[in-house]
Amino acid sequence: MAEALIEGxxxxxxxxxxxxxxxxxxxxxxxxxxxQNRAAGILKQAREKGEERARQxxxxxxxxxxxxxxxxxxxxxxxxxxxxxxxxxxELQQLPEKKEYPEILLSWLTEAARGIGSDEGLVYPGRxxxxxxxxxxxxxxxxxxxxxxxxxxxENKAISSIISGRLGVVVSDREGRIVFDxxxxxxxxxxxxxxxxxxxxxxxx
Length: 205
Hints:
The protein is an alpha+beta fold. It has 2 domains: about 1-95 and about 190-205, no CATH class; about 100-185, ATP synthase, E subunit, C-terminal (hypothetical protein PF0899 fold, 2-Layer Sandwich), CATH 3.30.2320. It has helices at about 1-50, 50-95, 100-115, 135-145, 155-165, 185-205, and strands spanning about 120-125, 150, 170, 180-185. The two termini are about 35 Å apart.
């Protein structure tokens, strides 16, 4: 259930991203056509005044159009990333209010425990997760991950600062050398990397 909900949010984000990409491509193509038509008009006028002058103006305008096309694509990418990430952040920030959130948190805790590659792990809960991660959840996550988990009873300032004021969970090995950040911010960053690749790929088609 929890994995399906998270996957659903991520799939919705990707679907929305593709829709936004298509709209952005149409806007970019219209802007490019406008620049190309302007260049063609200038070239036509220049030809009427002399072939050498026409060649010089055409070359200069071609460079201008090429520069504008690059700017349009860069602007499109940046705007899409910002718009999509705002939507994703809004969806994920609402997760703690959902009745499925304890199961979602269990899946994040299990994933983080497996990620440290150790037999034992210390758990650093986020600001809303502290009341949810009790003995039962720790036991379930330990069984699912094969890692003996316990709440960190002594504050490691470096690790605590990662999760301070955030949602989600961080797990480290006993020595604090290996840390798996499964805070909401970390998950968003990982998703953002995937979305960036998808946006770039779609725009290049």
